[in-house]
Amino acid sequence: MVLVIALIGSGCGMKQSEVLANAARASATAETYKVGFVVLDLTSLGQALGLDFASTGDDQAQIMALTDFINSKGGLGGRPMEAVIRVYEAFGGNKLKEEQLCKAFTQDDGVQAVVLIGQFQSNARPCYAAAKVLMMDATTYPLAQADFDLLAPYLWQPSFPEYGELLAGLVDGLDRSEFFTDATPAVVGIDSPANRRIYDERVKPALAGISVEPVEVRWIDGSSSATLQAGQDQAVLSFKAKAVDRLVVVGGQRLAAFMMETGKKQQFQPRFALTTWDNPEFAINNYPDQVLGSEGVSVIPAFDQVPESDLPFPSGPGENFCLDILAKAGQTFKDRQNARVAFLYCDATYLLGRGFAGVTGELTPEAFRDNVWSLGSEYISAATYASSFTRGRYAGGDGYRSIRFDQDCACMSLNGDVVRFPR
Q: What pTM value is reported for the model?
């Protein structure tokens, strides 16, 4: 399904609106700048696995509203933004589907940038980079600095931190909460060169620094549902035999939820170390018993079922700015988790607007990069607690808050203030 939207006379920005308004130079007849948006369809996945996903509202209407706002502030570098929307079926995602989506956007639609949500295959990002298309990656896909450098200047994550920093922050947060005291910990991860490298370079040294040595580090082949399930079964059997009672998950990609499901069947119930990449909100709604005792770090509260008593909704300039734009277009949200995808779209379109503001020539990825690296703390995310961009950085998330599962509210309570990621 493809929906092409060219809205002349609206757009997204933070201080936002003023910065973009000052950059307005183009007329409605200027050549458009095409941005592809992925809308993720979770219906079949939920039905097949018997899982519940919080409603995110009308994703396509949200994209239209943000496109309209961007164009009202002068477009992207003075050129009207044209949104190209493709709906992607999450169930049965594989490398072939990812390649087909990439070619549809880059070859059929001719987009110059794309907002990616739910793209978990390793071939997806190199495909867009090869086509010289800017990626605003809004997927909880683990990316280390080396991955960004390899695909520079095309790959960006407006809302998330670099994954090595995230996991180093996780270990730091768990140490401060005494999660590992008198524990028998293990690590499980999706097997990939990037995840192994991040573990060796960031997680292992961080654990060693607090005198924690896992009794086992097990890597699971996630290339197919069969290998994924077999790997989980073997991991649970091994962890049970070693009396593992703390489990750190590496690589995201719903592995924590899958391990909870497999553990439930085999009466294995460790305390999980979770991050936003593991979608705690989803785990709480679907595996309330397995999530008991879980702790970790929250990067994007809308994914983590953070109670409003700890973080009122909305909070901060980013959330309020984004919600105000959408509300004027009739898009409102009952709870923060219902707005989680909208916040990612806001961050992506805002960064595109700021990255091209003031560019007088061709809207190149290099011009975008140089502008973004000059933003520093002027970049204000709607999705995360703290954000910034500096030279050499391609991920905007810059802080976390510690979380702990609270059975009384069936939520992840916040503990302490925002902590900047270790670098």
A: 0.88
